[in-house]
Protein 1
Amino acid sequence: MKFCAVICEYNPFHNGHKYQLEQIKRESGCDKILCLMSGSFTQRGEIAILDKFTRARHAVQNGADIVLELPAAFAVAPAEVFASGAVALLSSIPAVEKLAFGCESGKKEDFLRAAAPTEDETFRNLLKKKLKEGESYVKARSETVIKLHPELDKSLFLSPNNILGLEYCRAIFSRNSKIEPLPILRKGGGYADRELHENFSSASAIRAAIGSPSHHLIKKNVPEDVFQDLSLVRPNQAKTAILCALLSAGREKIAKTTDCSEGLENKLFDLAQKETDYDKLLEEAVSKRYTLSRIKRILMQNFLGIYRGDVKRFLFSPLYLKVLALKKEGRRELLSALGEASFPLVARKSDFEKLSSEAAECFQIDLRANGLFNILNNRFINPFETVIL
């Protein structure tokens, strides 16, 4: 059995995602599609609008064969950690031969060329210079690569999806993985596009429309099963809880979070002492250097207890595979293929108790994230559940 993998959030699953899965079936040459999906919290530093099992079910009902959970330690992390952690899990599965990702431009060869340049002393010095000029890390790094390698296609560095695709390729190189990248041209609204379109709107636009006068327009942009579940989305108290956690943590703990550096903990803690509104605190904290997504991730990492030193250990430790959903048809073959992985499957509490120390610590964060999601949404979701369709 050959898997084509997709690293995703599906927050929520929409027509663009369904189109991507259809294209993978046409282009990959693989037997099955395996999705590695973020759980209860996302890379933007936000709580997912639907629980992970519901989102995994949407994926299987609309083209995927099996969905695994991306550990929260990697899911709520900057692009390079998000990609590296995901590729580490996928590389542990011998049956995973390709990794598909959405992009605005570029072919496989373009992404591999752009991801390959070595980061020598010249690169590091130029990167430091651009960071001192106030650029964000992602932008500074992209501009450095373009300046030192003018032969590369600049469009690969100009959109979030392309940049994430490059990080996947860098992770494949750095881990000497046999996985082959498979870029799929995106269809419809861009990553940050907040305008609803006829049929292919971004997840950002769909989230913004939930519960608004435009809610009915979502229907043409998502599969029917997804639309029905989106009608159940209700407000939660995540923003208040995140602010409370920030004030309770103190400067030292905030400084240990994955994305925090250069004294940002002081700015954030000082703001928490005088600002009671989450969105206003973000407005005060964001700058040219420190993007909105980065600030939100720091707040979420603090809320979930995700710290830099732990994440570094997890990146290079044997972890685990947690199945969220899979097709009933061919279930034995799917699980058999995962059974060949170098990371163990976690399906029940007794499996968790057998994990190595690093894997158990990482999984404990997933359990904490699941529990916090339950409290914020006033419901109980069993973290050891598996949806079979």
Note: The radius of gyration is 20 Å.
Protein 2
Amino acid sequence: MKNSVTPASDNQDESALHLHPVHRDINNRREIFGWIMYDWANSAFYTTVVGALFGDYLTYLAQRAVGENGTVLSFGPLGAVTAKSLSTFAVSASVFLQIFILPILGALGDYSDLKKRLMQVFCYMGVAATCSLFFLQEGWHLFGAAMFIFANVSYGASIVFYNAYLPEITTEDQRDKVSSRGFAFGYLGGGLLLALNLIMVQGAGLFGMSKLMAVRLSLLSAGIWWGGFAVFTFSLLKRRPAPRKLPKNRSYLTIGFTEIGSTFKELLRLRYTLRYLIGYLTYNDGIQTVIGAAGVFLGQELFRARGMETPPSFLLSIFLMVQFVAFFGALLFERIARWLGTKSAIIISLVIWAGIVIYAYSMLSTMNEAWIMGGLIAIVLGGSQALSRSLFSRMIPEGREASFFGIYEVSERGTSWIGPLVFSIVVARTGSYRQALLSLIFFFIAGLLILLFTDTNRAVHEAGNYLPEEIEGKAKAESS
């Protein structure tokens, strides 16, 4: 438990330590189940909308309006957004907004007991925006991009507070397991909804609707699923006291703005945590861009480049497979982390990610090869993200969980900035999705090298926290 043992690098008197109020009820199974259920709920947005359908459907509508790679938005000398780059531009725009919004919200979460309430507000704002995608049809591609931006910003904001709960409801030795199970059940929940959507899209004619209507209903279902299952989370997750006391000369309206500088100053002091965060933001930007662009990449390279329409059922089938295999992949990498260490497990996953990019660029040309790529992605997807989250949670000083995760979330699931921007620029200038995908290998190699030369154990100790083995050793000593 945080501050329940003393790191070897500290000389504190262990008897002088005391539990923070938010840690008096920890490793509670009901609350952990409620926390995991939010991954089950929000993964519907991440899989059905971000991963499987939205990008390709929005690109199709934009191309119907302005041609294969016509201009959708022009920014003069700064360039233009084309039909092919509209979906990745929407992702980039949403994350650009999050860069300014999420750290402010994170600081607010650390100074108030509103973390649960704010998580609810942004959850259902995102749900509303996702449900509005049902109205996305020909001529409405800019409306669709705007609603997606609103939904993705709300999604990211809710995840800031969701992630900040992880160090408050678990001890360090339980983080990898709980974080991995959250991702695993998220993939399972998202996969079940994708299965239902696959049935609806494939049998659209039997249900008396067009395939495009089936896609629109699938987008709607993601919002309903997200909002519906989130009810379980908010009924089980406890409202916890503010980790930090609000200064007398500050208010809840201003504390978020004034604390940003303090958070970054703390990050500069924790240089190994900062180095890890830079590495994570780098490689996860690549991961998120691959996931966000995969549907468009497959649709364009395997079908539209050959004069054929993309069968929505094919994309749904690929992502459905990814969801169910990723469930086992997340649990597998939790085991690898237990055997080799969390950092080593993440490094292994990044080597595989780099191989996936090379494979897609140089070899992928058939539907069977697309299935192979999907399988490889599924194996490493959950593990790389779940373990990155749990490792970072150990590097956060007590009382700054939401503030630090406000920065972390800039490149968490469904959000990335530089990767989609690079991808969209390469597509706009070359017209080649393969060239754009290959450019992402930089993010995996650079992130891997930064992580490789980061002393993560020292980062944990510098933050005043403890390694899982130290917690386990203390527990065994106390029980003997």
Note: The longest helix spans residues 29-66.
Protein 3
Amino acid sequence: MLIKIDTKEKFSVITPETNEITANMSDELRKCLMDQLVYPIPHVILNLQTKSNIEDSVLLMLSEVQEIFYNENNSFVIFGLNKSILNRLEELELLDTMNITPSESEAWDIVQMEEIERELMHGDDDN
């Protein structure tokens, strides 16, 4: 699977360059996402804008990856999911647990807000 990584100042935008993401692509995508945790800028925005289908096992993996990112105090935001994929996330009871936005600019905003929140929380630890 081809994956494009566009590194910005505060985060990386990761875009799988396929129309579908199947179960056999899950491990490769997971590795790419998890590898970001060791970089100086570990926050990730996952662009799934042009995906027509994402298999359930991949959706479950993305939910697990998001939890790992948040446990490591890093942001993980997905944007651009089509209505059928959003409906499937709802059926799997994952929609409310994941950080999903309609647009890339909204994903940027979430990463920046979470960064401010982390700074404020760490500031309270100093007192």
Note: The chain has a mean pLDDT of 93.
Protein 4
Amino acid sequence: MHCLWTLPPDDADFALRWKVIKFAFSKRLPATEMLSANQQNRRERGIWQRRYWEHLIRDERDYQRHFDYIHYNPLKHGHVARLTDWPYSSFHRAVAQGIYPADWCGVPVQVEGGYGE
């Protein structure tokens, strides 16, 4: 899951937010995934990475690069042939707001930057 957050002033507790999101989501799924011995000992679910990657947006260009990357990611990983086919994305809202045309990234392209994946 990728996202861009604007946190309240004087609050940068990314770890707590991810913990709450992961817990609430996981609680609603049956525990049927395969678990390693480590995951079992730590009482973890097998649906999440243990780590997360955070990045403080530096400027408008940096924001746009990450905004584009988030929306391009389902296409990059081969989940869909067209971004409009991925129903779980804010891409549809961005199209409705006129930020992207509906056929943005109609064919795979290389997105600039390293994003911690």
Note: The mean pLDDT is 86.
